[in-house]
Amino acid sequence: MSSKCPVADLYSHDYFHNPYPTLTSFREAGPAHRVLRPDGLETWLITRYGEAQAALSDLRLSMDGRRVQQALGAFAYGFLDRESDPPRTLLSSDPPDHTRLRRLVNRTFTARRIEGMRPVVQRIVDGLLDAIAPLGSADLVSTVAATVPIEVICELLGVPVEDCESFKQWTTALFLPNSDSGDGMTATDGMRNLRKYLSELIAVKRTELGDAQSDGQGLLAALIDVRDHDEDRLSEHELVSMAVQLLIAGHETTVNGISNAVLNLLRSPDQLSLLREDPSLLPQAVEELLRFDGPLETAILRVATEDIPIGNQVIPEGALVKIVLASANRDPEVFDEPDTLDITRTGTRHLQFGHGIHNCLGSYLARMEIEIAVRSLLARFPDLALAVPTEEIRWREIMIMRSLVALPVVFTPQRTNSLSVA
Question: Which InterPro entries match (predicted)?
Answer without folding.
Answer: Cyt_P450 (IPR001128), Cyt_P450_B (IPR002397), Cyt_P450_CS (IPR017972), Cyt_P450_sf (IPR036396)
